[in-house]
Amino acid sequence: MQPNIKWLDDPRVFRVGQLDAHSDHFYYDNEEDCAANRQSLCQSLDGMWQFAYSVNAKERPANFYEEGFDASAFDKIKVPCHIEMAGYDKIHYINTMYPWEGKIYRRPAFSGMPGERMEGQFSEADYNPVGSYLCRFDLDEKLRGKRVTVRFEGVEQAMFVWLNGTFLGYAEDTFTPSEFDLTDAIRETGNVLAVEVHKRSTAAYLEDQDFFRFFGIFRSVSLLAKPDAHVEDLWVKPDVCLKTLAGKVSVDLKLSGCAKTVQVRVAEGGSVLAETTAEAAQALSVSLDMPKAVKLWHNHHPNMYTLEVRLYDEGGNLLEIVPQPFGFRRIEMVDKIMMFNGERLVINGVNRHEWSARGGRVITDADEIWDIACMKRNHINAVRTCHYPDRLSFYRRCDEAGIYMMSETNLETHGSWQKAGMIEPSWNVPGSLEAWEAVVLDRAKTNFETFKNHVSILFWSLGNESFAGEVLVKMHNFFKQTDPSRLVHYEGVFNNPVYKDRISDMESHMYTPPHKIKEYLDNDPPKPFILCEYMHDMGNSLGGLKSYYDLVDTYPMMQGGYIWDYIDQAIMVKDEVTGRDVIRYGGDFDDRPADYEFSGNGIVFADRTEKPAIQEVKYYYGLHD
Amino acid sequence: MDCMTKRLRVVYGDLTLGVSGDNFHVIFNYIRGGIESLYTGGKEWMYRSPQPTFWRALTDNDRGSRFHLKSGMWLAADTFIRQTGVSVAVDGEAIAMPIAPENNKYSPDETAEKIAITYTFETLTVPAAKVSVTYTVTADNKINVAAKYFGTEGLPQLPVFGLRMIMPTHATGFTYEGLSGETYPDRMAGGVPGVYEIQGLPVTPYMVPQDCGMHMETKWVEIARNTVLSNVKDGKVSTLKIAMDDKPFAFSCLPYTAEELENATHHEELPPARRTVLCVYGAVRGVGGIDSWGSDVEEAYHISAQEDHEFSFNIVL
User: Fold this and answer.
1) For residue B258, what is the enclosing H or E element?
2) Disulfide engineering: A303 pairs with which of A295, A462, A473, A581, CB 3.0-4.6 Å?
3) Long-range contacts of B234-242 (CB under 8 A, 24+ apart)
4) Taking 50 as the threshold, does the pLDDT of residue B1 lie above it?
């Protein structure tokens, strides 16, 4: 397999040599590691890597991945880190417009527009920076002699990967894991992992989120070794009768390697509640009844159980343990009202971008822990992962904290259909364009496959502000058909209402004023109503929350919303004049066109201190907590 | 009552009226629009005469809804104001303006139970609106301040109506009894009643400096300072207390005027903080929140310029 730079230009190529998306489960090859939650089969590659920046593909060191390449002229860069935050290229904030606005004339390939020109649109652009990364590593003892993969948790926006000169593959979709098998190319010592990251590709049309436009390896990179037998994927499907609290849990397993038997247990704390054994197969399903009434998972009482899978060889030796936390809860539509565990759901929600004033979208465990504590103390019970999947660890934390998640797919094509507030979709993607279908559906599939075991996810969201067409219908159908245990959300049909009947389980709006919501609710509405964005907390704002909560109190079908948004997106730098730490925003980096302070809408400031308005959130959300 | 037994000493100056009690001396300037000096607790508390205030530094929502393009004339009105008159009443009786030579009839030993001085103003708006501010000093060591805006047809909504007092140096902080945090008419349900002490004069670090630090429903606020402009420095902390009259008031206490905040696109552009700007408000526009690109603040939280607005408070000495 040979890499081809033209893949950057072709929306039909987005995934080459990548392993299939799979559940984000932890696994161990012995009881001690499992008990201690010590992932000794995982080797972090985070740290200082060699790095070269080029302004475009033509100027990049194209053969840098070859063994023996002299990289002595390379710089050093930290992984993870946005390339711009390391001092290259340009920090740039822009909202709906594509980031090349006013600089490069572009129309999406296959859009039928006269100026679409696929070939070379990104691969030959004068400005389309490239980051060439080299990571030299020896394999940890524990990983040697095993099947090994490399997992990139987040790379913006398109990348080619080599190990020891061998091409492994190509990936897009910035915000989900990309994994490649290294087994055939890896050595015990002296490995060179080469990653070529391109700032823009056709993926740029699908990632027009309202945020700082970065590129580079911005989340962790790890090596993962598989025991001789391995659970490649599992899907835990709990089911509960709300009347009797009788519970049942089934699990679909996909295995690789040489297991002979599979033991499946349900445990709570230290005690085993149910257990069964099956013969191993590439794919199998196992089902267990809960022996007594189950405790439901809920915002206030996030009761969790563990489904433990153990793989044994013929001699009865333990090969692998997967302890998958899960919970029993039910989200369903009853008489046009979203019911959670049998009660009307009220979403006291917030939209959360991953952000830190020092790191941009490179955040830490401490940031996530702080965020969840902030949500809990302010009675926020729901989070929308706007507008892309978050770090893997955040989903686990939401399970444990009882936060209701709307897991949003990495899709936004805002600049392709809305111009200065006006709807003008003449070259909207994905629309109903066949060439853009596979890439978009793959994003939905990856979102689902990666996070399907998280009890906290109540809603799959198709994406944000991407208008509506047949491709969005197919996304909706994918989620509905694959996962009947959750509801599907999408707001963008609001702007293309002919698709209203075919997309989204609920009527979702943004920023609709209270009197307009009342109008909807007063006219025999077909679907319950939520606001996926409301209370735009830009600067000193958040006045009038009462009017929305009056509607929540009056109309059962008004089921709350998600405040826009959680944290100001702004960057802390040293002031050139005073030397003090100061906050900078769009336009402050000579970036043009920009949208300036429009990214400052958080209920917390960029440095994670609470804004004064948060006490109002705490009050009204507290009324329905 | 004290004021029945105690009397105020009054100095009928050529251009000013001096009034003193046990622990204060206040000088009203007839042509400078109000109190020129308020000396108490060993400190001067007035940097310049108090002035009616109409503007708040635009919030992002104000900018988004083009509030400035509708109500921008209040910015000029806030910056410059025309004084149209001044009158004095002693013990409830209006007197002829005691300026030279009228004041030749007084002596060094003048006293009174109550002195009231009323300033009238006209705003720079088109059409102009009338405003009056009456200071009533009584021998129980109190200055009652009553401000009135006279509703005028044809004027756009007001951002705020209040009285701005600038103190010569930066306060060490302030204590107030009212609601927790920062509150506005449409964002005060979460405010918890109590007594709160604020260190320094924090300017809330919104990305673009804008109106901030509002406290609705306040019973009293006490400003603490330990610095003076005087050549004699003693570092002593003294306080000035503003208390509600017939109903609670709103206030903000910041190191900057609305115009100074308005001029900065980043906090580091604000000048070094050196004064204390205390604004006491009788009317405050809401902040809104529906969106930041057009939706107005809800109607209940608008301030009509067609209607009268009156409020009063006491400076407790």
Assistant:
1) helix B258-262
2) A295
3) B234/B42, B236/B42, B237/B172, B238/B40, B238/B41, B238/B42, B238/B43, B239/B41, B240/B38, B240/B40, B240/B41, B240/B45, B240/B167, B240/B315, B241/B315, B241/B316, B242/B278, B242/B280, B242/B313, B242/B314, B242/B315, B242/B316
4) no
Number of neighbours of residue A188 by Cβ within 10 angstroms: 12
Tell me whether residue B217 is exposed, middle or buried, using C-beta atoms within 10 angstroms of its C-beta: 0 to 12, 13 to 18, 19 or more. Answer: middle
Which chain A residues contact residue B187 at CB under 8 A? 542-545, 613, 616
Q: Is the pLDDT of residue A549 over 80?
A: yes
**What is the nearest CA distance from A282 to chain B, expressed in angstroms?**
52
Domain residue limits, chain A: 1-241+243-329, 344-622
Map out the domains of chain B as residue ranges: 2-316
CB A445 within 8 A of CB A423: no
Superfamily, domain A344-622:
Glycosidases (3.20.20.80)
Helices (H), A539-613: 545-554
In the predicted model, what is the mean pLDDT of chain A?
98
Contacts of B35-42 spanning 24+ positions with Cβ under 8 A: B35/B135, B35/B143, B38/B143, B38/B240, B38/B315, B40/B238, B40/B240, B40/B317, B41/B238, B41/B239, B41/B240, B42/B234, B42/B236, B42/B238
- Asked if A541 lies within 8 A of B288 by C-beta distance, the reply is yes
Taking alpha carbons only, the member of A325, A376, A349, A372 closest to residue A489 is A349
pLDDT at A306: 98
Q: Residue A440 — pLDDT band, cuts 50, 70, 90? A: very high
8 A C-beta contact, residue B132 and residue B147: yes
Average pLDDT over residues B232-261: 97
Q: Which residues of chain A neighbour B295 with C-beta distances below 8 Å? A: 511, 513
Contact A539 B295 (CB under 8 A): no
Q: With an 8 Å Cβ cutoff, is A351 touching chain B?
A: no
| Closest listed residue to residue A326, CA positions, set A222, A383, A252, A226 | A252
**pLDDT, tens only, A348-405:** 999 999 999 999 999 999 999 999 999 999 999 999 999 999 999 999 999 999 999 9
**Which ranges in A124-209 belong to alpha helices (H)?**
203-206
Of the pLDDT bands very low, low, confident and very high (cuts 50, 70, 90), residue A1 is: confident
Instruction: Indicate yes or no: pTM above 0.90.
Output: yes
What residue type is A296 in one-letter code?
L
Q: How far apart are CA A101 and CA A122, in angstroms?
A: 14
Angle, CA A413 vertex, CA A411 and CA A416 arms, to 5°: 165
pLDDT digits (tens, 9 = 90+) for B183-201: 999 999 999 999 999 999 9
Helices in A70-134 by DSSP H: which ranges? none
From B269's Cα to the closest Cα of chain A, the distance in A is 10
Rg (CA), chain A: 24
Please answer yes or no on whether A615 and B192 come within 8 Å at the CB atom: yes
Question: Quick check: is A533 catalytic?
Answer: yes
Q: Which residue is associated with the tokens 């007063």?
A: A522
pLDDT score, position A114: 93
* Catalytic-residue membership of A465: yes
CA A225 from chain centre, in angstroms, equals 24
Query: What per-residue confidence (pLDDT) applies to A270?
Result: 87
Q: Are strands A382-384 and A404-408 parallel, antiparallel or unpaired?
A: parallel
User: Domain B2-316 - what CATH class?
Assistant: mainly beta
Our CA angle for A20, A23, A27, nearest 5°, is 110
What is the structure's pLDDT at B3? 44
Task: State whether residue A515 is helix, strand or coil.
Answer: helix
Residue A605's pLDDT is: 98
Instruction: Check CB contact of B60 with chain A, cutoff 8 Å.
Output: yes
User: What is the reported pLDDT for B4?
Assistant: 54
- The CATH number corresponding to A1-241+243-329 among 2.60.120.260, 2.60.40.10, 2.60.120.620, 2.170.120.20 equals 2.60.120.260
